[in-house]
From TrEMBL:
PANTHER family: FMN REDUCTASE (NADPH)
Record GO terms (molecular function): oxidoreductase activity
Name assigned to this protein: MsuE subfamily FMN reductase
Residues in NADPH-dependent FMN reductase-like domain copies: 1-145
Any single Pfam family the record assigns to this protein: FMN_red
Keyword list, A-Z: Flavoprotein, FMN, Oxidoreductase
Length: 196
């Protein structure tokens, strides 16, 4: 299984980086059989979407598209500015092909200064996942300033919720992949209505 984790913040260090990297460390320590790719947007030179065919992108942009395409599940972390996600992250959703997330499991982490923006996941991110026909895992996480001290994630409840989100992401992805591979035994055909 392949999981891609996106840090949608361009600032460093950021609350979004701290939460997404925490999940990456957890996944790598507890699920060594899973290939985890960490897309830290500040480390990539992503061009802005210009309506070209996604196959025509090159360099870092193509690399990010390919990582997302090949992933079985995606965990997206984003800061919330003015009640919305930053343009740098929205640009990722604009450049990936429409079928990149179809049938895949997606989880979300959002961070903000206060409690005010916790609904950004519901109003911004879940509709994007719906557009791409992805499955959103329950238990998404929102963290704010009070959960951090000295540029470190310190809140144990948030840490536990991040672990639960990672576990749920894997469980749902495995379940979907198992069902997609078909049943172990052929199904017995149902009688048609005319035969009953």
């Amino acid at each position: 299984m392949k999981i891609a984790v996106i840090n949608g913040s361009l600032s460093s260090p950021s609350k979004t980086y701290l939460t997404t990297s925490y999940v990456v460390d957890y996944l790598r320590a507890h699920f060594p059989e899973i290939q985890v790719s960490f897309i830290d947007l500040k480390d990539y030179n992503i061009v802005f979407c210009d309506a070209r065919d996604p196959e025509e992108y090159e360099g870092d942009t193509k690399e990010v598209i390919d990582i997302i395409r090949e992933a079985d599940a995606l965990l997206v972390g984003t800061p919330v500015y003015r009640g919305s996600i930053p343009g740098s992250l929205k640009n990722i959703f604009d450049i990936i092909p429409n079928d990149s997330l179809r049938g895949k499991v997606v989880g979300f982490i959002a961070t903000g200064g206060t409690y005010h923006h916790f609904l950004a996941i519901e109003h911004q991110l879940k509709p994007l996942a719906g557009y791409f026909k992805a499955h959103v895992v329950p238990g998404n996480v929102y963290a704010h300033n009070e959960h951090f001290q000295n540029k470190q994630l310190t809140d144990d409840v948030i840490k536990e919720r991040l672990k639960e989100l990672a576990d749920s992401l894997i469980d749902l992805a495995r379940s979907i992949n198992k069902k997609a591979s078909g049943p172990e035994h052929p199904l017995i055909p149902r009688k048609s209505l005319s035969q009953s």
